[in-house]
Write a structure and sequence with these properties.
alpha+beta; five-stranded mixed sheet; two-stranded antiparallel sheet; 16 helices; 7 strands; 7% strand; globular; binds protoporphyrin IX containing FE; metal-binding; heme; (+)-abscisic acid 8'-hydroxylase; iron ion binding
Length: 421
């Protein structure tokens, strides 16, 4: 359980996560206890245990986040909830990222990816890949939620959201000038901006984006969502979508950079489509995105290798017995996606990037980059589409990637040379 109070929090966040989890698993097996972020916790490194918590016995485990973070995102955001309210909101997010909706979003996402690549190519300074991808994934989030948005509001949202983002992981306090305090103020401003956008939107015709769905949503008794509930969910979605997708985009560029043969094979897959589209003067279609089989396998292997969300948290709502172990009520429970994705029993030579392993489907519950069960990621197809479009645009623009040191958080350090040439 580590040191009093801090437990093993420092080790968890300072060590290579692969080493932290593997060494524990070697010593104690697939189920072991620890103490992190001030809470006694049970870590579960097996696929069946992950399924038990997230799917088959999900009612015994509720989602749990530190209160300060819940306040910062907004307590009405769907991922803090269970039951009817959660299901109602989830339906709208899923609809906004459904194949029908994504099909319509392709030209918009392509335009955003192209403009990002152009701006990096034109920049003579070092481009921090992760920060660049964060900007791109935020812009895509805005597109999905609002469709077209007045540039004044877009700038205001970006400015205030980036202050919230900076203070999100700071120590909670009420001292003016600190990052946390600034974040709380910016969060208030975000609510005001979103309220203005909602009021303006209510007077306009339907545009069929996520904001429309949220505004027009009615519960069983005909009740509508308040502005505050809508704002919390919009900020929640931007939050869930931004760093995750940006990390995945950063890692896929790194893996393509590392393997020039793979890079060329993907380029060959894309070339046929590119030529056909050039001839007919049309841009990438939904059917074409579905036909890129090699690129798709590379995206899956990228998600397995990077395991962006290494684990998630739930809290036991009652004493639960699992395979002879007691999980006491109130303890945190952590299914370890990363450990499952790097277990040689399920993925041979797990630390090697090998897209060909996805020629066959992984064993049940062994591949969960987007979680599983009622809280699994409703944005998973959107995230995969973003990766596919970025790789497509990057290859078509014939940009040659160079990168420096890529840390485990997915951030690219700056060590002098231009990142794109
Ligand atoms: C590569 C990118 C992404 C990864 C790896 C990822 C991963 C995940 C995972 C593992 C969960 C489940 C967390 C849990 O069970 O506690 C989740 C939930 C969620 N994700 Fe994603 N995500 C990504 C992109 C996105 C995008 C683009 C959106 C935008 C729509 C999004 C929206 C959400 C939401 C709203 C939830 C909460 C769902 C619920 O509680 O019902 N994610 N994501």
């Amino acid at each position: 359980m580590g040191w009093p109070f801090i437990g093993e929090t420092l080790q968890l966040y300072s060590q290579d996560p692969n080493i932290f989890f593997t060494s524990k698993q070697k010593r104690y097996g697939e189920i072991f206890k620890t103490h992190v972020l001030g809470c006694p916790s049970v870590m579960l490194a097996g696929p069946e245990a992950a399924r038990f918590v997230l799917v088959s016995h999900a009612d015994l485990f509720r989602p749990t986040y530190p209160k300060s973070k819940e306040r910062m995102i907004g307590p009405s955001a769907l991922f803090f909830h269970q039951g009817d309210y959660h299901a109602r909101l989830r339906k709208f997010v899923q609809a906004s990222a459904s194949p029908g909706a994504l099909r319509r979003l392709i030209p918009g996402i392509e335009a955003l990816a192209e403009s990002a690549l152009d701006s990096w190519a034109a920049d003579s300074r070092v481009v921090n890949t992760f920060q660049g991808m964060k900007k791109l994934s935020f812009d895509v989030g805005i597109l999905v939620i609002f469709g077209r948005l007045d540039s004044y509001y877009e700038e205001e949202l970006k400015k205030n959201y980036s202050i919230v983002d900076k203070g999100y992981n700071s120590f909670p306090n009420n001292i003016p000038g600190t990052n946390y305090y600034k974040a709380v103020m910016a969060r208030k401003r975000l609510s005001e901006i979103l309220s203005e956008i909602i009021t303006k939107r209510e007077k306009r015709m339907e545009t069929n984006d996520l904001l429309d769905h949220l505004i027009n949503s009615k519960g069983d008794q005909g009740e509508i969502l308040s502005d505050e509930q809508i704002a919390d969910n919009i900020i929640g979605i931007l939050f869930a979508a931004q760093d995750t997708t940006a990390s995945a985009l950063t890692w896929i560029l790194k893996y393509l950079h590392d393997d020039s043969k793979l890079h060329d094979a993907i380029r060959a897959e894309h070339m046929a489509i590119y030529e056909a589209n050039k001839e007919r003067n049309r841009s990438l279609t939904w059917a074409q995105t579905r036909s890129m089989q090699l690129t798709y396998k590379v995206i899956l292997e990228n998600l397995r290798m990077a395991s962006i969300i290494s684990f998630t948290f739930r809290e036991a709502v009652a004493d639960v017995e699992y395979k002879g172990y007691l999980i006491p009520k109130g303890w945190k429970v952590m299914p370890l996606f990363r450990s499952i994705h790097h277990n040689p029993e399920f993925f041979t030579d797990p630390f090697k990037f090998d897209h060909s392993r996805f020629q066959v489907s992984p064993k049940p519950n062994t591949f969960m980059p987007f979680g599983s069960g009622v809280h699994s990621c409703p944005g998973n197809e959107l995230a995969k589409l973003e990766m596919l479009i970025l790789v497509w645009d990057q290859l078509n623009k014939k940009l040659n990637l160079t990168y420096h040191d890529l840390s485990l958080s997915g951030q690219v350090g700056s060590s002098g040379k231009p990142k794109w040439d």
